[in-house]
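Example S7 (structure tokens).
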């Protein structure tokens, strides 16, 4: 399965209890839906698990993975990203995007200048941010909002960014007056 044929639906954050359950940070709209799309696998597809959600704890789901029967085996999976086949997931709605579809897109300024490449999307609790690997090799982040990212053109392989004044360099005199 190629990278474009799968979507990361969660990450194992540790063991839960002594019988092999794991804590999972779910990336699905409803956290418990991580088990709704069939078996999940690690990134390389070498380990495939049936997943059953058994509960929740804080902002994590507690799940049982097939073949994982003790705490040591569960703890060994800490940090493993879990992937589901793209065709098992619902299509993205209007103005919705799977993060995997944005990674690698060219980031352009509103004037068409290439600013870099989309490297990642993050949610640190205050809203999504998009990370761009700048053409100078230095990464920068923008809020993932319509104001900062007014155009997402999947077919064209690009996004258009409108960084807030002062983010990527000193503010111009005109920007300071606004």
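Recovered sequence:
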């Amino acid at each position: 399965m190629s990278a474009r044929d799968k979507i990361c639906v969660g990450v194992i954050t540790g063991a839960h209890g002594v019988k092999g359950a794991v804590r999972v940070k779910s990336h699905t709209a409803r956290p418990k839906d991580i088990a709704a799309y069939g078996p999940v696998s690690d990134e390389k597809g070498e380990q495939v698990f049936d997943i059953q959600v058994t509960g929740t704890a804080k902002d994590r789901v507690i799940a049982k993975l097939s073949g994982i029967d003790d705490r040591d085996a569960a703890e060994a999976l800490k940090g493993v990203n879990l992937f589901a086949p793209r065709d098992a997931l619902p299509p993205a709605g209007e103005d919705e995007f799977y993060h995997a579809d944005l990674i690698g897109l060219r980031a352009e300024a509103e004037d068409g200048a290439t600013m870099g490449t989309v490297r990642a999307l993050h949610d640190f609790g205050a809203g999504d941010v998009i990370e761009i690997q700048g053409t100078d090799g230095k990464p920068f982040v923008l809020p993932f909002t319509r104001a900062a990212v007014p155009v997402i053109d999947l077919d064209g392989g690009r996004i258009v960014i409108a960084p807030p004044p002062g983010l990527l360099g000193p503010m111009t005199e005109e920007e300071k007056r606004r």
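Notes on this example. The first strand starts at residue 6 and ends at 16.
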